[in-house]
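request received
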Amino acid sequence: MLTFNLLLLVCLAYVAFLFAVAFLAEKRAERGQGSWLRSPMVYTLSLSIYCTAWTFYGAVGNAARNGLEFVTIYLGPTLVMIGWWALLRKLVRIGRAQRITSIADLISSRYGKSTALGVIVTVMAVVGTTPYIALQLQSVTLSFAVFAGNDATGGGWDPSDLNFSALWVAAGLAVFTLLFGTRSIDANERHHGVVMAIALEAIVKLVALLAVGIFVVWGVAGGPGAMLDLIDTAPVGAWELRPGRWVGLMFLSAAAFLTLPRMFQVMVVENSDERHLATASWAFPLYLMLISLFVLPIAVTGLAHLPGDANPDLFVLTVPLAFDQDILAMLSFLGGFSSATSMVIVAAIALSTMVSNHIVLPVWLNSQQGGAALSGDVRGVLLLSRRVSICVILALGYIYFRLSGAGAALAAIGLVSFTGVAQVLPAMLGGLFWRGATRVGAIAGLVVGFSIWGWTLFLPSFGEGSVIPATVLAEGPFGVGWLRPHALFGIDGIDRVVHAVLWSMVLNTGVFVFTSFLTFPQPLERLQGAAFVQVFRRSAGPRGWADNRAETEDLLVMAQRIIGAAEAQALFSRAAEAQGKGGYLPDATPAFLETLERQLAGSVGAATAHAMLGQITGGSSLSVEELMRVADETAQIMEYSSRLEAQSAELGRTAGQLREANEKLTALSIQKDAFLSQISHELRTPMTSIRAFSEILRDSGALEEGERTKYSSIIHGEAQRLTRLLDDLLDLSVLENGQVTLNLAEVRLADILDRAEAAALSGDASLVVRRDAAIADAVLTTDPDRLAQVFINLISNAQKYCDGSAPELTIAIRFADASMTLDFIDNGTGIPRESQAMIFEKFSRLSDHRAAGGAGLGLAICREVMARLGGRIAYLPGQGGAAFRVTIPLGLAQVA
Amino acid sequence: MTDTPPPPDPQDAPFLARQSYVQRRLGDAARLLPLVGVLLFLLPLLWLMNAEAPRTARGLIYVFAIWTGLIVVAAWLAPRLMHRPPKAIDTSDSPTHEP
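response:
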């Protein structure tokens, strides 16, 4: 038979064992050994402080009352954990980057290192956690009572007096926590020992619950199938699924998982490596699933085999006892004890850190008027305040336990606590993902949410009529019905927890967002907001400190008082070395102040560290002007470089234009040279023959009449050719310079063509000219002489060059909107493709120029004339022979 | 003052190497997983539509099956998410060979 004294002995031995483990772990960590202390598995197991005595005893009780609903409390955290990539990863990264010490520190640091927010969140956390600690006291006390009921002797202690044993349990836990928790001051210096002890306790509770579960499934029911049948026939066999609670509790547990101070402590503060989170993302849900696996089987076994008045919250203990499994009951008791102690220890550590950093230290700093950071014994104050806080927190838990009547179901108490701490969620998520969230908004949201929680859930939880009178509960304060705690705004009939969660979260979030819209953040808030929201994008945040005249020696004195002499000196000498100086006193540059503040924040929280540095460096750390100056410098550099870029692009463009111009000039010069040499050549050929024949005429006196006539006519012909050439050149030059005057008249196209044909062919009938019938009707306004000139050229070209056996020229006409096109197509071989591009150039001739008898200016002149007439002439390839297309506007306005 | 474009952010790069692309999609999957979980865990609410009230034993099997599935997927994702491909910046130290 298990005696109460034996139980007490085992209990004390277990505590001693835990302490030894913690002590050894601490020693190993100090000596730098034991990297296994920081394995992902230890991290995962330390997260299991989520599963408190509430889980261990309360989940079974809840399952016995509400069936499967208990599982929502574990599904919420599961969803948060498997979604670690989106949220927890960011939270842990920020926690490490900013050396966050607690959830209050996170909120305070995000909203401009605000002391007010630190105080508010701390108070909320303490009040919210108090029911939870009471819950642990209650469960441990009840479990003692179970064994005391079995043991008539009692060992001189009447364990049935719950209040008395609760007091002892509370005192014992306080001592336990003091020994574990306040050994080191820097909250960011992780508690290796505590974490190790918690990991061990996590294993004990899991093993205990699994052992009881396996016993009931295989030992009592006789296998999983039989157990499922038992569940089906149990009172909870029909699943009373309440949608509001199913959704609400899942949300609530997810929210609480993020905001519970103790969860934040192990998840963020004690995290030593981000990669541990990856492992925990699946390992912790697995832990939760294993913990929950046998909850329902134990509950239905208890319902089936124990008397009807047995407390379902204690089935984990009473079921093994009912089947006389003493060892199992002992293991189960240790599991419950582990759950309670680990939760209380971590919660007390987390809360005491918050209280000392956010309430005690700021008050103390203010009371010491200025010089506190230098002269006061900061370390002493810190340690003392933490120890006192731990005792006060446990005392509060005990008081709540006494007030709430120690009778409420465990699950109900836990939900009160969850809803309280979940009020931090909007400010927290807003701070992580929304840069527009402001300090005032966060304060407003927190206060509203917390007030609603207090009114609708916390105060009524003390019992009807104990804090809130029964009449107020029934009719509202001063008879205002829509303010009834369980029916806000007159909406009745919602489950109380769901009602409180719904209204507090909706109004909290609404007020937070709306107030943030209306208010404008301070410079430090904006800096911190950016550093939090964009923690993955920027490695180093902007400086929070401006240049100043702080005495480094003062800083060293202060740092020694907070983080200890050796560590402070090491920090300072490292900084001095980094600045290229020897000794212990680096310059108080903004970068150094930033580092120092981070370091101090790891001990006393961001707000306090900021305030303490502020005292020494002389007040405000940062003004809007300084922020803008920094931003301006960056902007100026960026603008300067963009200007340089624009200039160089401009230069590049200009250089390109110059190169093009140069190429054009070179080409023109070559063209001019070619033109001159062409001209000289064209002039020289007739000149040579004129000179030769005139010499013959002069020197040979006796020439026959016929010969003289022949020579003179050659000279005459050559002179005519010269004149024609010069006329053409003159014509071309006039056309090119645009000095030509046009004599516009309305004429029939046929008349011009007749004239041109007559002039070009001059009776020679070797070329047959065919015209479209439509040409006869065409009338246009143009300069008939100039147009005739073009036609004469084209027709005579055809006559000269067309090499068809029966030369033939077809003139086709087509009308467009305001112009007509005339195609001159002959039936010769046409112009080779490679020559088509150059036939309109001056002096270009495709065959021997002698045969052509022209200077090669004809088409060049045609092109100029057509340009003057507002039309154009182009070679038309692919018509069988040479083809030219002349486009003429129908009515030519005066083209200058 | 001219409008200068903000410095290019590596996260906004339109094209990524295959490995980094796969890495990002794994991240998307990891973000999506809890939503899938929420959906599946809310599914039993639809059972209320049935004429017959849902049974606890059946719910128990359903919830724990989904739970196990989520854990398996998360365990598959976690090591792959932590395996970071070497960053492009890191290679700048070592001499690179241009083809």
